[in-house]
Amino acid sequence: MKLQSKFTEIAVFLASFFILLLPPILANPSGENRFTTWNFPLQNLILAATAVLLLLINKSLHNKETQQNNVTNFCDNAKSKTLILLINGGTMFFTFGMLLIYGILLQLFASFVLNLPPLSDTKVLLPSGITQIFFCILMFACAAFYEEAIYRKYIQESLEWLISKEDKKIVLAIELISALLFSLCHRYNGQIAVVNAFGAHFILRHCALKTNGIAAGTIAHFLYNIATLFVLSA
Questions:
Q1: What would the pLDDT profile of 22-62 be if each residue is shown by its tens digit?
Q2: Which residue of 1, 48, 160, 195 is surrounded by the most CB atoms within 10 Å?
Q3: 155-162 and 2-16 helices cross at what angle (nearest 10)?
Q4: DSSP 8-state symbol, 208
Q5: For the chain, where are the alpha helices, taking DSSP H only?
Q6: Going by C-beta distance under 8 Å and a sequence separation of 6 or more, which residues neighbour residue 20?
Q7: d(CA 122, CA 114)
Q8: Measured between alpha carbons, how far is 89 from 26 in angstroms, rounded to an integer?
């Protein structure tokens, strides 16, 4: 049964790699301006639902280990849980601030040292009307959740379970692989976006490890995307 689970996990990971992870890496960078129209984000909803499915599959394949982690990492009394929520909230705001600082410093370096055009030259239109605002929020929320679930949880857990999570060198290699995959999937936005995503991965991954989940990172990621939208539309 254990061997069958191993083969199942390998098959699921390979399928997710070729269907979800590889296409955005191989896609040619587009010169078209993005975020000029706000429609119903069907693709983002499908990706978010797929991420949920992959996490559920992983949980079912490693149910015993998941239960052990839950017993270890969650406190029994209400006061401790409230304290954890407050700490995780602080971590979320800290992560959001670090993402902003890193993005600003990187843009300043690109503009004044590398003489690259500023991101503010990108044509972006803010959503207008309740419907477009709802579509915008839904799209960014689904995108943030999908990327946190896949690049900050699913990849690491799958590879650690398949290879070895005891060897620190292997764990570090897995973290680097996850960062590279996340950064390269932003090639469509140019070189600076790739570098920005590479650094942002480690900030968000630290948040995921610190809070023992992806909820705080998803909120920080969502807020950062919204803030970036307002900056680019200014």
A1: 999 988 765 555 677 899 999 999 999 999 999 999 888 87
A2: 48
A3: 140
A4: H
A5: 2-16, 22-26, 42-61, 63-73, 78-112, 129-149, 155-162, 168-184, 191-211, 215-233
A6: 47, 50, 150
A7: 18
A8: 36
Q: Rounded to an integer, what is the distance from CA 234 to the centroid of its chain?
A: 25
| pTM, rounded to two decimals | 0.88
Are 160 and 174 in contact by the 8 Å Cβ rule? The answer is: yes
81-85, 87-91, 112-116, range with the lowest pLDDT: 112-116
Which of 187, 227, 213 minimizes the C-alpha distance to 99?
Answer: 227
Q: What is the pLDDT of residues 141-163, one digit of tens each?
A: 999 999 999 999 999 999 988 88
Terminal alpha carbon distance of the chain:
57
Question: What residue type is assigned to position 120 of the chain?
Answer: S
CB-CB neighbours of 177 under 10 Å: 13
For every residue of 125-191, DSSP letters joined together read ----HHHHHHHHHHHHHHHHHHHHHIIIIIHHHHHHHHS-SS-HHHHHHHHHHHHHHHHHTTGGG-H
Residue 118: DSSP 8-state: P
Phi, psi of 61 (to 5 degrees): -75, -25
Q: Say how far apart CA 100 and CA 139 lie, in whole Å.
A: 20
